[in-house]
């Protein structure tokens, strides 16, 4: 084991899924970026003395780094239930992963999304993408997709590719989407499905094989690893047929003297040009391994109990109204967005910050959805002047009942 740098204000955690933090600071903003898990910190610390180039050097250090990088790739594949032949391409984050997929779409592909998606799953898609209205329930989402794909297929060339791109769990409400059912519908119509698992993967198992999905995107920094590494995992055929995402060293298998003389690599290397983010990938791989070894049911039950406490507590604070797409009982991960009657969300967030509580305020990179949900929440309560933005509290591995209760107490104090 390497040195243990976590002294001073950092509590020294002892289990792989313990997270680092600063005493006195309550982080209820896991949905934006989760704190670093012990597993990630240890993996990085242990590799630091071996720090050297990946896939490029012949020295012992480089060989070790290359092994660590490829082991991280296998760990991510295992964590996400990748099938034999699926590819894991390291990216910077989910946004980068979905942009990579958009870049690799066959020319005539139509992409179908819902209007409730995060901007990362709305904006990368080519012109002509179909944006289905926000559905009222998970069942309505499945039916709407079925109808839209039937319509899309009518009269068009049946081999024209269609990609359905949906979130696994929404970043505004934490509500879970019926991914397996949507995948079945997509495949029945000969379409593919990509899942934005940025919010789902930190909270619940995402198994590509079981869900029957084609592509999955995740962000390391929401999965208890530091910033800068994410992944696109799944079928590789479109990716292998596309030009490299970035042109350069590593993506090229052969380069001749003339400008056109280049043969691109296949597999992950094709889209990972340039020196890779070794430490980011290794940290992500380490957390994937630790989460894979953990009792996910136990983690889920613990989080759901905290979430229930948070939601019930918020409902009891006068003037607080939760945002939701589906009904209040729909399954969700540890995320709640809300508005407070007559209060500017940015001011409330700033007040919470002075009490040492970190939440997020804003429209959460899902502007069309959040604006709509704020208006709906205000209409339910009969408010005439809804706030322009919302607040979001999100929990995860390091969250405790004390954190939740401190938030509730601070909100109830005004
Ligand atoms: N999709 C969802 C559902 C998200 O919550 C986020 C992050 N807020 C993203 C995509 C984008 O993730 P990143 O910023 O790590 O690229």
UniProtKB/TrEMBL annotation:
Coiled coil: none annotated. This is Cysteine desulfurase. Keywords: Pyridoxal phosphate. The lineage of its organism: Bacteria, Bacillati, Actinomycetota, Actinomycetes, Micromonosporales. SUPFAM superfamilies: PLP-dependent transferases. It comes from Polymorphospora rubra. Its cofactor is pyridoxal 5'-phosphate. PANTHER family: CYSTEINE DESULFURASE, CYSTEINE DESULFURASE 1, CHLOROPLASTIC. InterPro entries: Aminotrans_V_dom, PyrdxlP-dep_Trfase, PyrdxlP-dep_Trfase_major, PyrdxlP-dep_Trfase_small. It comes from the Bacteria. Residues 26-407 form the Aminotransferase class V domain.
């Amino acid at each position: 084991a390497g040195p243990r740098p976590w002294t001073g204000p950092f509590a020294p955690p002892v289990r792989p899924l313990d997270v680092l933090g600063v005493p006195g600071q309550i982080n209820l903003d896991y949905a934006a970026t989760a704190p670093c898990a012990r597993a990630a910190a240890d993996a990085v610390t242990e590799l630091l003395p071996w720090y050297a180039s990946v896939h490029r050097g012949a020295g012992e250090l480089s060989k070790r780094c290359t092994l660590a990088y490829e082991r991280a790739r296998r760990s991510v594949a295992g964590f996400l239930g990748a099938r034999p032949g699926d590819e894991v391409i390291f990216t910077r984050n989910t946004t980068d992963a979905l942009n990579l997929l958009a870049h690799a779409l066959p020319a005539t592909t139509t992409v179908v999304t819902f209007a409730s998606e995060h901007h990362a799953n709305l904006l990368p898609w080519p012109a002509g993408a179909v944006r289905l209205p926000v559905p009222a329930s998970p069942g309505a989402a499945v039916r709407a997709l079925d109808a839209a794909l039937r319509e899309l297929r009518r009269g068009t060339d049946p081999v024209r590719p269609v990609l359905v791109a949906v979130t696994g769990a929404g970043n505004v409400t934490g509500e879970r989407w019926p991914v397996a059912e949507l995948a079945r519908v997509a495949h029945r119509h000969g379409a593919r499905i990509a899942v934005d698992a940025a919010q789902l993967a930190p909270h619940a198992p995402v198994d590509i094989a079981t869900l029957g999905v084609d592509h999955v995107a995740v962000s390391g920094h929401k999965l208890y690893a530091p910033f800068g590494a994410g992944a696109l995992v799944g079928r590789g055929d479109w990716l292998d047929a596309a030009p490299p995402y970035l042109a350069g060293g590593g993506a090229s298998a052969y380069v001749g003297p003339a400008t056109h003389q280049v043969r691109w690599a296949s597999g992950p290397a094709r889209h990972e040009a340039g020196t890779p983010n070794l430490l980011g990938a290794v940290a992500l791989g380490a957390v994937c391994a630790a989460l894979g070894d953990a009792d996910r049911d136990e983690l889920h039950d613990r989080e759901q109990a905290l979430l229930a406490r948070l939601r019930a507590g918020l409902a009891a604070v006068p003037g607080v109204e939760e945002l939701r797409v589906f009904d209040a009982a729909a399954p969700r991960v540890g995320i709640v967005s809300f508005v407070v009657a007559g209060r500017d969300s940015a001011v409330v967030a700033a007040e919470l910050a002075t009490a040492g509580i970190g939440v997020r305020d804003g429209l959460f990179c899902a502007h069309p959805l959040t604006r709509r949900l704020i208006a709906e929440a205000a209409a339910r309560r009969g408010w005439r002047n809804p706030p322009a933005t919302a607040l979001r509290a999100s929990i995860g591995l390091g969250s405790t009942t004390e954190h939740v209760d401190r938030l509730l107490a601070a909100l109830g104090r005004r």
